[in-house]
């Protein structure tokens, strides 16, 4: 039987052809395609404001693994910070749902992959904090060079990490983010960009738990998804 992999979703207004704009729950197709290609069964997990621990455990009862996908910035109140002027509009439904899901997944030691925003949710759920606008620190926009398009930059995994054992030392990664993880209690740093931005975290004692700042779902390398589904089995 295929491992069931939950993927967190947006709930946003969308327009479909001649239909009027309406609110819809959706996950972009590359996440779905990568999970199917790895032999998993993807399941979309809709967000809702107020979702907490009981809801999260009820969802995880049905899953063998969980992906926290990319998306808009977290509300800085979750890590006790004032908002930067360029912070994006918050998604309280995703914040509530994903923080609860990550905490429950950690409690259960469920295989967990955080992608971009998802890595940031993992860090904040553990009591960590974020850099709210990376260009202020690194002095360039290579992590999100063109609005609405993925860029690419090199990433180097750290020695003696599980991530290096999985992906090797050097990667070229699809990227689109203006925030990054600063502190990450309970996680070890696992990869960096050449400008020092943290690009991955891992939980060495977990069954399988990684966060990556890049977007493997739009790249050609399937190994993260293959390994997640293998762990879920």
Please describe what this structure looks like.
The chain is an alpha/beta fold and 233 residues long. The chain has one domain (4-232): Class I glutamine amidotransferase (GATase) domain (Rossmann fold, 3-Layer(aba) Sandwich). The protein is 27% helix and 27% strand. It has seven helices and 13 strands. The protein has helices at residues 29-37, 53-60, 92-108, 117-125, 134-138, 162-167, 223-232, and strands at residues 4-8, 10-14, 22-26, 41-45, 65-68, 112-115, 129-131, 151-157, 170-175, 180-183, 188-193, 198-202, 209-212. The strands form three sheets. A nine-stranded mixed sheet has the order 4-1-5-6-13-12-11-8-9, with helices on both faces. It has a two-stranded antiparallel sheet with strand order 2-3. α2 crosses α3 (92-108) and α3 crosses α4. The radius of gyration is 17 Å and the shape is globular. Pfam families: Peptidase_C26. Keywords: Hydrolase. It comes from Flexivirga aerilata. One of its GO terms (biological process) is polyamine catabolic process.
Write a compact overview of the structure shown.
The chain is of the alpha/beta class. The protein has helices at residues 29-37, 53-60, 92-108, 117-125, 134-138, 162-167, 223-232; strands at residues 4-8, 10-14, 22-26, 41-45, 65-68, 112-115, 129-131, 151-157, 170-175, 180-183, 188-193, 198-202, 209-212.
């Amino acid at each position: 039987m295929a491992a069931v992999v939950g993927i967190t979703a947006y709930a946003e207004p969308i327009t479909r052809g001649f239909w009027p704009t309406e609110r819809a729950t959706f996950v972009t197709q590359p996440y779905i395609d990568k999970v199917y290609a790895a032999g998993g069964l993807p399941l979309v997990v809709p967000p809702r404001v107020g979702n907490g621990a009981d809801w999260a455990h009820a969802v995880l009862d049905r899953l063998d693994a969980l992906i926290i996908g990319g998306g808009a910035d977290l509300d800085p109140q979750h890590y006790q910070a004032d908002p930067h002027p360029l912070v994006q509009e918050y998604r309280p439904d995703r914040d509530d749902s994903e923080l609860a899901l990550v905490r429950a997944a950690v409690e259960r030691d469920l295989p967990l992959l955080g992608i971009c925003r998802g890595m940031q949710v993992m860090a904040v759920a553990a009591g960590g904090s974020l850099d709210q606008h990376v260009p202020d620190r690194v002095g360039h926009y290579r992590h999100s060079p063109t609005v609405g398009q993925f860029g690419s930059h090199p990433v180097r995994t750290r020695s003696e990490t599980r991530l290096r054992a999985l992906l090797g030392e050097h990667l070229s990664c699809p990227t689109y983010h203006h925030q990054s993880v600063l502190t990450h209690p309970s996680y070890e740093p696992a990869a960096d960009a050449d400008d020092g931005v943290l690009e991955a975290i891992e939980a060495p004692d977990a069954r399988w738990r990684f966060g990556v700042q890049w977007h493997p779902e739009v790249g050609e390398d399937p190994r993260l998804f293959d390994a997640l589904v293998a762990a879920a089995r």
